[in-house]
Design goal:
The protein is α/β, with parallel strands linked by helices and 347 residues long. It is 49% helix and 12% strand.
């Protein structure tokens, strides 16, 4: 008799992700099969685990699947220090991951700042800790437990911000920074939250429910417990699946536009590297605004603080020029039009 359907589903999702990781990190000409038993030189995959149902289900599936492919499996839990006793809970997660057979396993304490609001600041601190752990242990990838429900929430939050198609594309199945473009993997984006919770229940895995996930002070919590249920009541079941589909379709479109913008970026600059307003004006708005956003980030504007309204103001220097003054952007960056050129630099 095989495993419970929920357990089978999460293991299959993780197996596919691990196969993709191996394919991405194996030279095309290499025909050497993975060793039956992982050794110290085998690639290491880490799981980011909070102790919640999603990440515990992910950790258990990683522990089961990784050795079959000759991979080492480890775990990391991040203590944000935002609740009393958070350090003790982090120690409990370390114990649970160790009992699953993961190694290395560690808890990392972080200090959460205030920039961008509490949720964004916590996320920045968490990814900083995960990046550090991956580099310290030489990990090939880090698995994250985001589900289809998380994806739907992310799409709705992007829609509410009016941030454009890139926000509507939600979370990528594979992502990472410039130095590690494929570091983060999200195997559960096609699975719902209930599947992960069911998998934990049938395997008798202890689960910790973060009270912040039910705290109405947090936007995502309100959306999860009030917004999405209201949408499903008004529109019927299937809203989460439809939003997840929207994310994938939007991502495909956004990727194509990003590629177009990168290719067009060099053609709209003069010999000195300055942006030429006439050439920018001739581009489709979606492509032009991507070029303007990239130029602002290159000049020092923090990407997380640069919103659509900022780019629209800069865009008006191209499309609605009436002699207006400089535009102040986050990060003390200034954009102004000078003699047919758009100059974006530190103020």
């Amino acid at each position: 008799m095989g495993p419970h359907p929920a357990v089978a589903a999460i293991r299959l999702a993780v197996r596919r992700a691990l196969h993709d990781i191996l394919t991405a990190h194996t030279p095309p000409h290499s025909l050497v099969p993975a060793p039956a038993t992982p050794g110290e030189s085998s690639p290491l995959v880490l799981v980011a685990c909070s102790g919640g149902a999603d990440s515990m289900a992910l950790a258990s599936a990683l522990a089961f699947e990784a050795p079959k492919l000759g991979l080492r499996a480890g775990g990391v839990t991040v203590d944000h220090g935002l609740q009393p006793g958070s350090d003790l809970r982090a120690d409990e997660v370390v114990l649970r991951l160790t009992e699953l057979g993961l190694a290395p396993v560690e808890a990392i304490s972080v200090t959460v700042g205030r920039e961008g609001g509490p949720e964004a600041a916590a996320r920045d601190a968490r990814y900083g800790a995960l990046d550090g752990a991956a580099e310290r242990h030489g990990a090939t990838a880090v698995l994250l437990g985001h589900t289809r429900d998380d994806q739907a929430e992310t799409v709705l939050l992007g829609l509410a911000r009016g941030s454009g198609i890139r926000s509507l594309s939600g979370m990528a199945a594979v992502s990472g920074g410039p130095g590690a473009p494929g570091r983060y993997r999200r195997p559960f984006l096609q699975l719902d939250r209930q599947t992960a919770r069911k998998a934990c229940m049938v395997q008798s895995l202890p689960v910790w429910d973060d009270p912040h996930n039910a705290d109405p002070a947090y936007t995502r919590s309100r959306l999860r417990h009030e917004g999405l249920p209201a949408l499903e009541k008004a529109l019927g079941k299937g809203v989460v699946e439809a939003l997840a589909r929207t994310a994938q379709l939007s991502r495909d479109d956004a990727d194509a536009l990003d590629t177009w913008a990168r290719q067009a970026g060099a053609s709209v600059r003069d010999a000195a590297g300055l942006l030429e307003c006439a050439k920018l004006y001739a581009l489709p708005p979606a492509v032009r605004r991507r070029i303007l956003r990239s130029a602002a980030i290159e000049a020092g504007a923090p990407a997380g603080s640069l919103f659509a309204r900022h780019i629209e103001e800069v865009d008006r220097l191209i499309t609605g020029w009436r002699g207006q003054g400089a535009i102040n952007l986050p990060g003390r960056v200034v954009a102004q039009r000078q003699g047919g050129r758009l100059v974006i630099r530190q103020g």
